[in-house]
Amino acid sequence: MLDLIHTVMHQYRSMQYQALRDGPHDITHMEGKVLGFFGHHPGATQSDLAKHSGRDKAQLARLIKGLRDRGLLDAVADQSDKRNVRLTLTSDGQSVLTVLRQQAKRLNTLALQGMDSREQEQLQQLLQRVKVNLDAGS
Fold first, then answer.
1. Are 128 and 120 contacting, i.e. CB atoms less than 8 angstroms apart?
2. What is the pLDDT of residue 23?
3. How far from 42 is each of 5, 45, 47, 71, 112, CA to CA, in Å?
4. What is the pLDDT of residues 4-58, one digit of tens each?
5. Cβ contact 65:25 at 8 Å
6. Distance of CA 24 to the CA centre of its chain
7. Nearest CA-CA partner of 53 in 69, 73, 32
């Protein structure tokens, strides 16, 4: 049964990123997550992202470098500590994030089509229970 959840999420992500594949910014899911983090936390550092995500710092450094090289993230040295670099979205980065958010909203509507509010609430509660069960087992 949980294979179905995996299949649904894979289909959802594929459809969400489809809008970007044909344009100048073909990005991966993880790159989208990084853009989303800095969209919500402008001026945060790579260390802030590592703490938030729990991801490997070397992997994040590669992702950030790639996004900077492609003009989606901008970096400025921290005025109080030159060793830290503060990251923000560029206008292109903001555009990519806007497309991802629009796609997510469209796909949420599509995925829940035909479900009334009670069914949507029930689905959310059941998925939350699955998450809690998995959290308890780790």
1. no
2. 67
3. 32, 9, 13, 16, 32
4. 999 999 999 888 888 777 766 788 889 999 999 999 999 999 999 999 998 989 9
5. no
6. 19
7. 32
Architecture of domain 2-137: Orthogonal Bundle (1.10)
CB-count burial class (<10 Å; 0-12, 13-18, 19+) for 27: buried
pLDDT band at 2 (very low <50, low <70, confident <90, very high): confident
Percent composition of the chain: helix, strand, coil (DSSP 3-state, to 5): 70, 10, 25
Q: What's CA 75's distance to the chain center, in Å?
A: 19
Written as one letter, the residue type at 76 is V
| Domain limits, the chain | 2-137
Q: What is the pLDDT of residue 16?
A: 84
Phi, psi of 81, deg, nearest 5: -150, 100
Beta bridge partners of 74: 88
Nearest-CA neighbor of 52 among 69, 33, 66?
33
Neighbours of 35 (CB within 10 A): 22
The single residue listed with the structure tokens 């969209």 is 39
Local structure of 1: helix, strand or coil: coil
